[in-house]
Write a structure and sequence with these properties.
It comes from Lonepinella koalarum. InterPro entries: HicB-like, TTHA1013/TTHA0281-like. By secondary structure, this protein is an alpha+beta fold. Helix content is 45%, strand content 14%. It has a four-stranded antiparallel sheet with strand order 3-2-1-4, with helices on one face.
Length: 139
């Protein structure tokens, strides 16, 4: 799973500002560290959704440094990030992916919807159409 580093800074109004060095569009606020971490998860999801909507490559997370916190993506969200980046790298548009998978375009829209609960077997088929293999490991 991908883990994005975040920085939490106490603001002048006694709230905590959360930013992500790798995803500049991400910003959130919490009343304390615990709520800031919860807001960071939501803020990162929203910011990454912008990348999906705009069809822009998503930066990979940088190493987590001392003093930073980490926001993990779910396994499915991580797969979607890798899939979007691979489609962009190979210049495969949604219509082309629909043709390769022999499905209608709305199914590809859901496949590339960061918040949609896509089935893993459909993700695996999509990666195969890009000549990539989806692998899972437990650490």
């Amino acid at each position: 799973m991908l883990r994005y580093p975040i920085e939490i800074i106490k603001d002048t109004n006694d709230t905590y500002l959360v930013t992500c060095p790798d995803i500049p569009e991400m910003a959130s606020v919490g009343d304390d560290i615990e709520s800031a971490l919860l807001e960071a998860e939501q803020g990162l999801e929203v910011a990454l959704s912008f990348y999906f909507d705009d069809r822009r490559p998503i930066p990979m997370p940088s190493p987590i440094k001392q003093g930073q916190y980490a926001v993990p993506l779910s396994a499915l969200q991580s797969m979607k990030v890798f899939l979007l980046n691979e489609m962009i790298a190979q210049n495969v548009r949604k219509a082309e992916m629909a043709r390769r998978l022999d499905v209608h375009l709305p199914q590809i829209d859901r496949l590339l919807d960061f918040k949609h609960a896509t089935k893993v077997d459909f993700m695996e088929k999509a990666f195969k159409q890009l000549d990539k293999e989806l692998s899972v490991s437990v650490v």
